[in-house]
Amino acid sequence: MSNSDTGSGDEPDSETERDFERGTGPPCPFCETPMYKRHCKYVCPQHGVVIDCSDPFL
After folding, report:
1. Annotated region Disordered: where (predicted)?
2. Where are the beta strands (DSSP E) in 10-56?
3. Over the stretch 14-42, which tens digit does the pLDDT of each residue have?
């Protein structure tokens, strides 16, 4: 199998997965680590889900 196959697993399948891998969200309010956007949530790698779409301040 060559590296040019679409199912190689090297690249994320969607924009959401790319955001999750890069940590492109706002900084965590507790530790300032960039959070990952995952569906309707921002997830801190240290603290878990910190912000979700039901929070009124987004």
Report:
1. 1-27
2. 36-38, 41-44, 48-52
3. 554 554 556 788 899 999 999 998 888 89
Q: Which two tokens stand for residue 27?
A: 């900084």
Question: What rounded mean pLDDT belongs to the chain?
Answer: 73
Letter for the amino acid at 55? D
Every domain of the chain and the residues it spans = 23-58
Q: First vs last Cα of the chain: how many Å apart?
A: 45
Whether the Cβ atoms of residue 49 and residue 43 lie closer than 8 Å to each other: yes
Sign of CA dihedral 26, 32, 37, 39: negative
The verdict on pTM exceeding 0.70 is no
